[in-house]
Amino acid sequence: MKCGRCRAPAVIEVRRHNAGYCRECFVRHCGEQVRRAIDHFDMLGPGERVLVAVSGGKDSLGLWQILRELGYDADGLYLGLGIGEYSDESGRYVRAFAAERGWKLLEIDLAAEYGFDVEGGSRSAKRAPCSACGLSKRHIFNDAAIRHGYDVLATGHNLDDEAAVLLGNVLRWETEFLGRQHPVLPAAPGFARKVKPLIRLSERELAAYCVLTNIDYIVEECPMAGGNRHLGYKHTLNEIEERSPGTKAAFVFGFLERAHERFAAEVAEARDELRPCAECGAPTPGDVCAFCRMRARAVGEPIGVRSIS
Fold first, then answer.
1. What is the pTM (predicted TM-score) of this model?
2. Which end of the chain is less congested by CB atoms within 10 angstroms, N or C?
3. What would the pLDDT profile of 280-294 be if each residue is shown by its tens digit?
4. Would you state the CATH architecture of domain 42-218+228-260?
5. Are 111 and 247 in contact (CB under 8 A)?
């Protein structure tokens, strides 16, 4: 197969684009897809400071590098979740990546700063591990972006991730979640702007990008991810994509273009009802946010005894 751009030997085929690419053209293709997403959804502005949540995996490290190559002032944020050897190893990949390039990396350790790890939070709050992990990430990433003065928080959610989440939300008609499922969540009181610049790139493309640009990343899946239903949704969508290339992109972008606005009003109404958490000050529909309730249960502390710092 020849590269569709320069006719050199291709190293990868992207079936949904009906094209093959050589190394140089594929790396350029990935950068262009991120740039197009940023421009189309107005994700980032000139001179804005970007905080990239990095886990040590291909998506977040690939995103950090692409944003830097596109000229954005992007720093990294690594959250140590306390998942045994997996967290130790993922942290090593992130630190090595940042050190090799001389890029700024912020680090937060869940256990050291908040007194519990994901397993403890999951057990005490009677949540699935992925639920406790997601809750911790959302809270801490947002807090770090605001506290350190960043204009925007970027995460490494790719096309496959968004398609799987969308499928799950549609199957259960989670209307509020559908209203929040967008590549850009605008800033609001207590919330940093959040963006997903990888929405036009698949998981396979990110893996190839990292291999072709010599990004060393953790390959193993999180040991607590077993049974996560989104992995099942990804498998189902992969089977459909294999038979009909382009299905995931059509599903996600069709929703964004034709249906998202139908659910957005519910999100706006919910945000209008938020108030500062009595413990941490983060926006919440109740007196104490879900993260602080989980933390209090995990450390055996009565809810409501901490004051806003």
1. 0.94
2. C
3. 999 999 999 999 999
4. 3-Layer(aba) Sandwich (3.40)
5. no
